[in-house]
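Before drawing any conclusions, I needed to go through one protein's amino acid sequence and its backbone structure tokens, quoted below without any editing.
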Amino acid sequence: MRYPAEHKVSTRRRIVRGAAAALRARGLAGVGVADLMREAGLTHGGFYAHFASKDALVAEAIDAAAEQSVRSLRRVVKQAGTCSALEAIVGAYLSAAHRDGPERGCAIATLGAELARESPAARRALSVQIEGLLGLLAEHVPDRRGVSRRRQAMAILSSLVGALMLSRVVDVHETSEEILAATRRHLTAPAD
């Protein structure tokens, strides 16, 4: 039975969304093609009708995660209320909900170290996510004499990703909370 073209596109999107969540939750080593296809309600055999390789799926899943992250943070900015956009971004990124929900969160913090050793396509996809987040942050950092917005955004993104990773790694809940809080305070403190 032949399916309409829209069915294949819809199925591919479902596989990519599921892979994006699974990769962020369990990492590259924790997710196989058979698992991803089963989670999408499909058989392992159908994988190659949609993707040339697992690397191709990983790259596309990272792209999807990147788009989701930037969209989510743009919503946070729109709903910032009385705090600055940067404070809203920092607060959302360094929240307990983000720490505890890696499958919905930033792929840089969950997959960055792993992807550094992966295929060029996967690293390229993560590089695109980094650029997207740098752009978003650069839109909202305050002007500082002698420091470009991009450089400020790099420092902030590095702090966000590092703090989130550390808060997930430590096995003492109070320390995890303290890492998030200290970094939030540091990033939102008025400039000297």
User: Anything to note?
Assistant: Residues 52-188 form a domain with the Tetracycline Repressor; domain 2 fold (CATH 1.10.357.10). The two ends are 68 Å apart (CA to CA). The longest helix spans residues 54-78.
